[in-house]
Amino acid sequence: MAGDALLVGIDFGTSHIKAIAFTPDGQIAAKASVPTPTIYPQPGWAYYEPAAMWAQTVAALCQMTAQIDDPRRIVSVAVASVGETGVPLDAAGQPTYDAIAWFDTRTKPQAERLRRELGADPIFLRTGLSVQPIYTLCKILWL
Description:
Blueprint: E1 6-12, E2 16-22, E3 28-35, E4 38-39, E5 47-48, H1 50-65, E6 74-81, E7 99-100, H2 108-118, H3 120-127, H4 136-142
Parallel strand pairs: 1-6
Antiparallel strand pairs: 1-2, 2-3, 4-5, 5-7
């Protein structure tokens, strides 16, 4: 496999952050996994601190690239993240708040407000989604 181009995938998952390098034909060249740094401050709440997310992502990438003979073989990187989780950024690209985890339910009041004020059916017809606390709009309203 020496000299082959490598593609890298990074998956920021609920329980682990994974990094994998593979050849264009799908052969795995290296992989690493580190725990996702989730904070649970109270029942129903869960979040990720952006700096800790970054540090763990870098740790996974370092572990993965240590298994590769020449990291310059990496020609592409793709990133996937846990659904309905995002880091709000300011105009300079700096985090303004922690990333509320997709499974965090602190936004139940915001979901109820949307159902009450806009109606569940119109929202579903427009978005294809039922109103749930885990969705981004509820998190934006909470922020």
